[in-house]
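Usage

Read records sequentially. Each one opens with the input sequence:
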Amino acid sequence: MDSVSQFVLGAALAGAVLGQRTKAWKSLLWGGVVATLPDLDVLFDHGDAVANMTFHRAESHALLYLTLATPLLAWAIARLHGERHLLARWGVAVWLALVTHPLLDAMTIYGTQLLLPFTDHPFAVGSLFVVDPLYTLPLLLGNVVLLATRGSPRGHRANWAGLVLSTAYAAWSVLAQGMAERAGERALVNQGVVGARLVVTPAPLQTLLWRVLAVTDTDAYEGFWSVCDGDVPVVFTKIPRGSEWLPRLRGQWAVDRLQWFSGDCTKVETDGAVLRLVDLRMGQEPHYIFRFVVATLGADGAVVPVERTERSGSRIDVGRGLRWLWARTFDPSVPPPR
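and closes with the structure output:
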């Protein structure tokens, strides 16, 4: 999730744990700061665009390592404020702020390696978009009221209300995702697509409209489903994956790494002599956030791996995208922007 969501979640949790035992600004500030620490891994350049993508949300997001870091951070905060008698409370607050960061990240589709060093599997529920105001606003309002009332009982009730509402919204996102997945499965059966892997993610900023992606060995199929669609079936558009290129690209570290990280939800694009590997999970056809130049074609048609992959993603114009998002949510006949 975005840094604002992580900050206000950590702040709200610390405020709830410490209650009126310390000043509200302390618990909110430190809860928010601690909750953003795992994302400092973006400051490290691994020397390659695919490496930077796939090593983000790795060790710094592992539940074990964050748990091991908790005592030192809690001790430092308690000592700084002369609150060693609250060390246990600070410990719980810091631990919750830290571990809920990767757990919230895992609700997106990116991939979070929660269980390192035991497994590097990138966990991704995919039921929340990376920025969702309806998740963030209850937490933010709870923080603001708690701070404005200087930790009054009314402020703490507002803070708890923000936590409850945001958690309920996250739970709703999982329910809505399941509904979209079932609608997609029915449509695939009716359209004769078999053996496809489904990836269901919300369209940006909300959880009413969903992108349903079905991936086979040779093609991908993209459709959209809204909770307002009623009985209207999902209509899929076929997207060739450039599967004829994959055997010639496999064996390259960057290609194999992205295939693993995305769960084989990729396609190969050709642009003249340039070959790009595209992560199909984030974005929508033909606009994807993660495109990587992985190879070029020599004069004899041979595939020549690049020494260092470069990212070349694209996005839909914000205004155009928001207009389509609103229209498609309520009208299944609205085509996606191309």
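Summary fields computed downstream for this record:
- The longest strand covers residues 303-311.
- The mean pLDDT is 95.
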